[in-house]
Design a protein that fits this description.
By secondary structure, the protein is mostly helical. 64% of the residues lie in helices and 0% in strands.
C-alpha cells in the first residue's frame, strides 16, 4: 500500500521524445538572443514620442521585452526540471509534402501578385490555397470540388475585404488595390 502511494506521488517519467534540459535551455537562450536583436533594431528606429508619449519604437520595444521575458522563463523552466507536463510529440512520422506545397503556393502567390491584382484578390487567393493545404493535411476528401473552392474563396473575400477597408479607409494606410478609389 505504501509503495503505491509513493509511486502516485512521484512525477511521471519524461517521455523519450522530449529533449534534454540543456537543449531546452538552448531554446530559451535563442529566444533571448532574438529579443536582444529586436531591441537593437528598436533602438535604431528614429523618431520622437508622438501622441500620448508613444513613438514609433514603442511596439518593437514592447515585443522585445515580452520575448526576453518568455526566453528567460524558458531557461528557468529548463533549469528547474525541464518542460513540465510535455506530452508526446504528435503528428506524422514523416512530412506530408502536398499540404506544404499548397500553403506555400498561397503565400508565395500572395507576395508576388499583391501589387498586380490588389490586396483583396491576392489575400483571397492565399486563403483559398492555404485552406486546400490544411484540408489535405487533415485527410479530407473532395477538397478540390467547385463547391468547396467557391466556399473558401467567399470566406477569404469576407475576411480580406474588411481588413483592406479598415487599413485604407480608417487607418489611412496604403495597401495595393485594383482601383484608385481605395475601396477595391
Amino acid at each position: 500500500m505504501t509503495e503505491s502511494l509513493q509511486q502516485a506521488q512521484t512525477p511521471e517519467a519524461v517521455p523519450s521524445t522530449i529533449p534534454p534540459a540543456r537543449w531546452q535551455a538552448a531554446v530559451g537562450v535563442g529566444v533571448v538572443g532574438v529579443a536582444i536583436g529586436m531591441g537593437v533594431g528598436a533602438n535604431m528606429i528614429p523618431g520622437n514620442a508622438g501622441y500620448g508619449g508613444v513613438g514609433p519604437s514603442f511596439l518593437p520595444w514592447l515585443c522585445a521585452v515580452v520575448l526576453a521575458v518568455c526566453g528567460l522563463w524558458l531557461i528557468w523552466e529548463a533549469m528547474t526540471g525541464g518542460y513540465r507536463k510535455a506530452g508526446e510529440a504528435g503528428g506524422s512520422d514523416r512530412a506530408d509534402i502536398g499540404p506544404f506545397v499548397w500553403v506555400s503556393a498561397g503565400l508565395l502567390l500572395n507576395a508576388g501578385l499583391i501589387e498586380h491584382i490588389g490586396f483583396i484578390v491576392s489575400c483571397t487567393l492565399c486563403f483559398t490555397l492555404a485552406v486546400q493545404g490544411l484540408r489535405r493535411a487533415q485527410g479530407q476528401a473532395n477538397t478540390l470540388s467547385g463547391k468547396a473552392l467557391a466556399k473558401d474563396a467567399v470566406i477569404g473575400l469576407l475576411i480580406s475585404a474588411p481588413v483592406f477597408w479598415a487599413f485604407t479607409q480608417f487607418l489611412a494606410i496604403n495597401l495595393p488595390g485594383l482601383t484608385q478609389t481605395g475601396w477595391l
